[in-house]
Specification:
Two copies of one chain form a homodimer. Chain A is of the alpha/beta class and about 200 residues long. In chain A, about 40% of the residues lie in helices and about 15% in strands. The first copy, chain A, contains seven helices and six strands. Chain A has a four-stranded parallel sheet. A two-stranded antiparallel sheet of chain A has the order 1-2. In chain A, β1 and β2 form a beta hairpin. In chain A, α1 crosses α2. The longest helix of chain A has 17 residues. Chain A starts with a helix and ends in a 5-residue tail after the last helix. At the A-B interface, α1, α2, α3, β2 and α4 of A face α1, α2, α3, β2 and α4 of B.
């Protein structure tokens, strides 16, 4: 009998957030309890507004509050390159580099037979529909996991009839890391991908 | 231009939670976006229900959904001992030890002149009102910080006319810690508080 039932319920709802354990969840529940009314209203409005106003860009499937997302409608972007990512978060991370000037395609998942997610459950059809004469390169930037890898291979196979260049992000040692702590698979990939200096 | 404005707003509201940085907040914002409708409804109902149904126990000032909290109304508790804590979280932590059988008193803050919090802004008057012939010991369990320490000293002074025993939690090395990493103040307190074995 420590938390009151309502606080227990709130902490339970928060504990489902990614990266939060039971202790952090209960700390945040107390924080929400101590919020001013206007802070609490803003939190709830922000949740509702995000969930109501955000849908998918009809071109790249990225999260967007408009029919066509700001990136797809930006005439300065390089329409010859499409970077395929698993989710909107990944597109955000690449975008934050301020280096990539092409377009994105967000799959919203990866093929994962164990989770019963097949090719038709992610936005692959929408990607193929975008491959026309203007697209020169498709960068497969799914995560370096088994599922991400398998999804990339599957998409590469589907893209081969289009004659478009298909690339994959490089594997190797993270910058600043020590060889000592690199796992053997990463080290092997770094060796395979070695380049002249 | 990475997050959409609504997602940015939601991540901003979440970033104010304790212990969360900007990256975790944006990760949680995406998670909330991907919740099912029923999960999102449950989250919002849990927030509203906690904020509406929880107030303070009229005796110990701990958070409670009833006029008198379950601990104060439990006849098996030892009413001769009151443990004074800064907040409901601290009472929860002590309660989770399943060792302390007395009552609590929640101050809801500590005296902190820098933050403009004086003795009248925390529940000290309510504590004094509880000191009658039946209370034998008051355990001051405020945090081992400057403010917690000052608040404890101030309460000790107010309690002296009542002739009640006033104690403070022990300072010392955390169990399992190494001397090497202990800060000098803690080490000094551990030395001062040494006991025969």
């Amino acid at each position: 009998m420590s938390l009151t039932p309502s606080l227990e319920r709130l902490a339970g709802a928060i504990a489902s957030f990614p990266g939060l354990g039971r202790k952090s969840a209960s700390r945040i529940a107390y924080h929400i309890l101590n919020m001013t009314d206007s802070e609490a209203t803003e939190l709830i409005n922000a949740i509702n507004s995000a969930r109501e106003s955000i849908s998918r860009c009809s071109k790249c499937q990225n999260l967007s509050e408009t029919e066509i997302c700001p990136i797809c409608s930006d005439s300065r972007r390089d329409v010859t390159t499409i970077c395929v990512v698993e989710d909107a978060k990944a597109a955000e991370v690449i975008e934050s580099l301020h280096e990539y000037k092409g377009l994105y395609h967000v799959l919203h998942g990866v093929i994962s037979p164990l989770d019963d997610i097949g090719p038709d459950d992610i936005a692959i059809t929408e990607l193929l529909a975008r491959i026309d004469g203007s697209v020169k390169e498709v960068i497969l930037a799914t995560n370096p996991s088994t599922e991400g890898e398998a999804t990339a291979m599957y998409i590469k196979m589907l893209l081969s009839p289009f004659g478009v260049k298909v690339t994959r992000l490089a594997y190797g040692l993270p910058v600043g890391a020590s060889l000592e702590f690199a796992d053997s698979v990463t080290l092997l990939r770094a060796l395979e991908g070695r380049s002249d200096i």
